Amino acid sequence: MEDEKIIHEPKFFSVDELRLLKDLESQQINKVLFHYWVNAAKLDDIIQLLNYIEFQFIDNTNLIIAASELCDSIEVVTIDIEAEKKSLLEKFKGNITLQTTDKTKDPLWSRMIGYPVAEILLDKNLSNQFYSDKMIIDFLPLRILISIIPLGLQYTEITDHLN
Fold first, then answer.
1. Which residue in 4, 40, 78, 109 has its CB near the most CB atoms, within 10 A?
2. pLDDT for the residue numbered 3
3. What DSSP element (H or E) covers 144?
């Protein structure tokens, strides 16, 4: 029997998501919050994934980048995190929660506080559709790659562009 290969169709950012990402450029971030989805149904096998990265800006607006429900793409979402926490608590009786961690003073993220976002870099295809599997947020002193993995969002500092 031949191994079957699972082929995933590429996903793309919507026009609205691209507009929100473009609006991120020149914004000055003053707070970074990570919101982790935690499944503690089995105490010996707790699953935690980075579901949302929330950027709060000096003008009191925010932008939330999320892992899609199937963790196969990045989405730009508008969500009330506190309402989501309450909903999960009620629906899953505390077995699944959303936990928030302030990363503003983290050694990586603290280096971008006070700098405007210079550019959002995305890969695109020949039809000018922008893939939603990764993005680079370029702050002039550093670049951060945010990408999707099977267990949510991941991030790393990079020194090069997407290619």
1. 109
2. 56
3. strand 142-149
pLDDT digits (tens, 9 = 90+) for 19-50: 999 999 999 999 999 999 998 877 777 788 99
- Cα separation, 154 vs 76, in Å, equals 15
Q: Of 133, 155, 158, 163, which Cα lies nearest the Cα of 53?
A: 155
> Residue 59 burial by CB count (10 A; 0-12/13-18/19+): exposed, middle or buried?
exposed
Count of alpha carbons within 13 angstroms of residue 136, beta-carbon side: 18
Residue 1 structure tokens: 């029997």
Is residue 107 within 8 A of residue 94, CB to CB? The reply is no
The three-class DSSP label of residue 110 is helix
Listed residue (130, 157, 133, 135) closest to 24, CA to CA? 135
Q: Is the pTM of this model over 0.70?
A: yes
